[in-house]
Request: fold
Amino acid sequence: MKRFDVLILGGGASGLMCAARLNQHSDLQVALIEGNTKVGVKLKVSGGGKCNITNVDVRPIHFLGDAELVQSALKHFSKEDLLGLLEKHGLRPIVRKERYYFCPKSSDEIITILKQLSAKSKVFYDEKIISVTKDDSDYKIKTDRALYQSAQVVVATGGISFVTLGATDIGLRVAKEFGHEVTPFTPALVGLTLQPEQFWMKSLSGISLPTRIRVGDRKIEEDTLFAHRGISGPAILSASLYWHKGTIAIDFLPGQDILKRCRGQKKQISSMMNLPKRFSKAFLEHIGIIDKPCDRLSADELERLSQLHDYRFAPSGTFGFSKAEVSRGGVQSDEIDAKTMQSKKAEGLSFIGEVVDVTGELGGYNFQWAFSSAVVAADGIMRG
Ligand SMILES: Cc1cc2nc3c(=O)[nH]c(=O)nc-3n(C[C@H](O)[C@H](O)[C@H](O)COP(=O)(O)OP(=O)(O)OC[C@H]3O[C@@H](n4cnc5c(N)ncnc54)[C@H](O)[C@@H]3O)c2cc1C
Reply:
């Protein structure tokens, strides 16, 4: 049986950052167990291969989960701390669309830094973690190849989205084994499917529009992309985080007033909508209005046209885990010590990253959470 001071389960964003922090600031013997033949697989594919690392505006409001836990981690290792660390090692992320920090060239830039900083850790690749048990003071970790032993175990195995990238539910199984309450994972940051009444949108596949989405008490302003399976794009992905069941409302022409624009106009309604022709045609057809000069719209038709700003409907579901960027849910945060990310139920067992019941919006929030929670855990272990 191989023994280490700290065993990190999962070599993704949070696992790598935790190993890096421990290696840079301690002499602890650290090992990382990863099911894939490479580490940082989700980092690699994220952000279109350029990894959206963090966001200009990192506040707890952009996360679903225990605001105090999030706030505490973000304070301990902030966006500025993350950017400072990367810059010190030669990576200056660039801001795109005024908010999102990306690697300038490729995700490999951040993966390389994390690998360099965690180089003192022993990495066991291509090993599936099967179980974690505890006797006396030590944890025993069983994989499909070996047995390991450690007094400190950090569960960094992420969520269950994108099974093709190695995702498993081992994190939740370990948590349950040690008496933790878990919120079952559900797909989030994912496209939404439509009920038959909204199938008119399917004909718009490929069109993308700036929109404002209302879901519960959240408002999201971003682009919506019409897809063959339903609706997607940044606005819908972020909205999916807050959607459970029930209606969402879309404003297809945010910041403008279609009724004002049409008033007294002799121009065709579709031209006053100033939206892609295919969209205007499908929308007018859907609400039962024939395209005609605006001044010929009846009061009832004007009422229906106003739906352009408040189109309410109930999606039928999501595109599922195979398309979801994250898994919402996880190990419940009230059983985790915010100062150390350690379990309140099992000494020496920590949970970090996506396996915890904290999920960020689209835009770099999930990596920021993964990194911040990882540093909190590493520092907690080093304080002893
Ligand atoms: C396509 C895609 C794009 C994304 N883009 C972004 C983005 O641009 N910005 C952003 O902030 N977030 C993005 N995300 C979300 C982000 O990748 C995750 O939230 C983040 O990686 C979570 O970090 P983590 O360390 O908790 O888990 P992960 O990075 O998923 O790491 C978990 C690791 O554990 C390993 N593992 C799991 N089970 C086992 C097991 N049984 N045995 C051994 N190893 C195991 C996995 O192989 C994996 O390497 C994206 C996700 C996807 C799928």
